[in-house]
Amino acid sequence: MNTDYAAKLEKAKQQQERARERQKAKQSNPEYQAKVKAKAQARANKAVEKQRQKLSDPLYIAEQREKKRKAIERRLEVAKTKKPESKPPAARKSGTKIAYRERSTSTDEKRLWDELGQLPCVACLEHGKERHPVAIHHMRGRTSENCHKLVIPLCDWHHDTPAPKEVIALHEWMIPRHAKGSLGGKPAFEAANAKETDLMLTAYTMIGRREEALKLLAL
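and the corresponding structure tokens:
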């Protein structure tokens, strides 16, 4: 190998190594980390504000309401023609009962619930309405991994309490996620509103956690 070429190659390697060291030092600097975090938070706040302005725009609300009305009509029509699914044979009961312990909530999960609890019901938002207060609905129970993060904020009428008949007469999409009696349940709830996963993405976006939601839903 040519001596000059070898020297130039070694010099280039040294320059690259120094550049990597400078980058590492920069990234580990608390002041730099604070600036990066502040910029990310500013972007998130901007996105949330943009979303809120969009949701409060009368024209957008009217368009979404009409779009949802047509979608609900189609889904309910399909639901009427669907044959009820046959239930699998019940498992034989054993003498020993299995107890499933609810997962404990972490500090970050509690913070997440506090943030989501400040939002209006995401199912109502799909129809251009805002309703408070909300409860944290667990999409996949309370025992599975990440169960306390796979959640959405729902008002009582969308969560587990059937709305009065006069309310349902005006808003047929007011279907509770947890069925009580003949009204509610996941299929009816999603047919009248939106998929739970879509509602979760909307809620997480509004609190600046969209990327986190995408990762959770991809698991």
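(Above: one complete record from the training split.) The mean pLDDT is 82.
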